[in-house]
Amino acid sequence: xxxxxxxxxxxxxxxxxxxxxxxxxxxxxxxxxxxxxxxxxxxxxxxxxxxxxxxxxxxxxxxxxxxxxxxxxxxxxxxxxxxxxxxxxxxxxxxxxxxxxxxxxxxxxxxxxxxxxxxxxxxxxxxxxxxxxxxxxxxxxxxxxxxxxxxxxxxxxxxxxxxxxxxxxxxxxxxxxxxxxxxxxxxxxxxxxxxxxxxxxxxxxxxxxxxxxxxxxxxxxxxxxxxxxxxxxxxxxxxxxxxxxxxxxxxxxxxxxxxxxxxxxxxxxxxxxxxxxxxxxxxxxxxxxxxxxxxxxxxxx
Length: 301
Ligand SMILES: O=c1ccn([C@@H]2O[C@H](COP(=O)(O)OP(=O)(O)O)[C@@H](O)[C@H]2O)c(=O)[nH]1
Ligand SMILES: O=C(O)[C@@H](COP(=O)(O)O)O[C@H]1O[C@H](CO)[C@@H](O)[C@H](O)[C@H]1O
Prior knowledge:
Oligomer: single chain
Number of helices: 9
Radius of gyration: 18 Å
Enzyme class: transferase
Protein name: Glucosyl-3-phosphoglycerate synthase
Mean pLDDT: 93
Domain Glycosyltransferase 2-like: 29-138
Cofactor: Mn(2+); Mg(2+)
Low-confidence stretches: none
Strand order of the largest sheet: 1-10-7-8-5-2-3-4
Bound molecules: uridine-5'-diphosphate, the ligand O=C(O)[C@@H](COP(=O)(O)O)O[C@H]1O[C@H](CO)[C@@H](O)[C@H](O)[C@H]1O
Number of domains: 1
Largest sheet: 8 strands, mixed
Shape: globular
Distance between the termini: 44 Å
CATH architecture: Alpha-Beta Complex
Keywords: Glycosyltransferase, Magnesium, Transferase
CATH superfamily: Spore Coat Polysaccharide Biosynthesis Protein SpsA, Chain A
Structural class: alpha/beta
Strand content: 15-25%
Helix content: 25-40%
């Protein structure tokens, strides 16, 4: 049963020449949120700079938002040619929170693009065609506000489908509450692109709920026609431990449920969900998982 139709393309549906012609005076920012990614962020920045900034002018700036790193992420990204900002130092009057979504929200105060392409910093198997692929629909289909990437995920035991949180949390909750998004192949993909004018109106979860929240909010206001997805080929990334993915799952579930009538039950600046996990049998290990959301950045621009 086909429950929805999300317009789907392949990254190679547009040539670079076509995209450059469609781009005209539109500004494009690549934004990379990065927390302790000194091992991979230099490659992400360096290759995009080499292929899409220095050689052709598809990307106008590469902005790395250093999200409270304790390693050399800042220095590595800067020497690879990115404009680097520490999330906590952007608009200090607005406070600072940990998390990927916070880094992406704060990027709106420093990135200058009309179009923003987000890419994770922990990519290991990827290529620079991700960026033109994600820009294709935004540059050529005016009704599209948000473009989601999808890909095959090669694994040691053959291709993996979605990641663990994708398959066990996001997809089941979307099937229950947002069946119109069932066609979205990778709802949590960190590689997506959006019009600044739209993203800056959105409430943004500070943690890992950011990606799915933007998808749901785009559907709510713009219907399926506001969303496109692009096949980017193959992609591999670093993996977190299962217990850490438990915290990601809380944030993804909170972002989805908050958008239904079933609020996750937490509000306010110190909002957090107590997650009790068990290590070595019966040893409880508690953590408070932040599920805070930032109001649309346009309120502060
Ligand atoms: O507090 C955080 C956590 C993650 N990230 C970045 O968000 C992206 C995706 O996060 P992560 O790699 O932790 O997720 P995974 O890919 O392991 O599921 C990466 O570029 C991280 O460096 C971030 O900027 N701040
Ligand atoms: O899909 C998921 O369950 C998680 C974790 O994936 P893995 O089980 O480690 O491959 O990955 C998602 O979230 C990440 C953080 O935002 C993104 O980087 C991935 O693209 C996304 O698939």
